[in-house]
Structures are given as structure tokens and as C-alpha cells.
Amino acid sequence: MSPSRNIDSTAWRIALVLALALACTGAWAKKADRQQPMDVHADHLDGNLADDGVSVITGNVIMTQGTLEIRSDKAVITRANGDMSRAVLTGNPVHMKQLDENNEPMYATSRQLDYDLLKNIAVLTGDALVNQPSRGQMRGQRIVYDVDNGKVTSGDDGTRVSMHILPKPKPGQAAAPKAEAPPPDLPDATPAASGKTP
Q1: Residues 167-184 pLDDT 10s
Q2: 50-59: per-residue pLDDT in tens?
Q3: Domain ranges in the chain?
Q4: d(C-alpha 94, C-alpha 50), whole Å
Q5: Which of these, 37, 120, 127, 140, has the minimum number of CB atoms within 10 Å of its CB?
């Protein structure tokens, strides 16, 4: 296999792990997104082709897959025995948006997302916010999501957690008022808008 094929393969595997890391951070994820093609754009990739190693993607990292869109400043991917074991995304903040199975939007932001693929646990830290306008929102300095059992924990570390939960409308009832407005759409991810070629 040529070196360029190895690099292409490594970049694809890194991108896949990043998408899984964020697609799995909540029950809100649209399952069909995982079957869609993925696009990743960044200023720099420093990859390691060994079975055990770390690869770093930096500078305006933009990932899209189906309805999932992720933006961060940096993504660090760790591999152990040839398998991805950890993905850490950092930003000021990391932005995520996606539609759920009912085509309802979900928005999330945090300074860091640390996804342990071996334990299947995602941790959002630093001004973490998960917002589903039709269901409510959760804020905390640290939100831990156990993907396998759907358990979410926050607080208990000296910080407070804040939740705004909207009632589910009953048939024939008017919908409850929406939660706080979602953040505005992020700038266009096309190369022309950023001035750089991905």
C-alpha cells in the first residue's frame, strides 16, 4: 500500500471516530447519519500510522455527516492496538448540531468533548449546554453521558447543574413554549466562505 493511501485511510478513520464520538453523545442522534458520507475540513493533520499512536487535527475543524455538524479548534485521536480508543475535541467552544429521529434539532456546546470509545462514555466539560428546543435544555460545567445505558450525570463536583424541562404535549393540546432559542446557524462551511481551500 502506498504512503498516500495510508494517509488517506488514516484521515478517514480519524474522521469516522470523530463523527461517532459526537453522534453517540446523546440519544438524540439520528441513526441514519452514521450511514451517510462524511466530509472533514481542517487547516492541518498530523497523523501517526502506527497501531498505537496519536493523530491531531487542528485549525477550523469542520465535520459534516448527514444532519450532524461539528466544529472545533482541535481534535486529538488516540489508537491502541490498531483501534480507536479515545477522541478529544476542544474549542472555544466546540459546536455540535444534529436532528434526532423525529427531525427535531439538537444543539450542544462545550469547551471540550472527551469520548472514551472503550468505555463508551462521553464527557462534555466547560460551560456545557445541551439544548433540544422542543424538549428543554441542560447546562453544567461537566455533563457525563454513558452511551450504553443512556445515563446522564452532571454536578456533584462543586458546580451546579441547571435544567429546563418542557412538558410533552398531549394529543389535541397546543405544544408547550419552546426552550431558549437555539444558537444562530454557524457560518457557511464552504471553502469560498472561509477563504481557504479544505
Answers
A1: 877 787 666 555 555 554
A2: 888 898 999 9
A3: 3-170
A4: 28
A5: 37
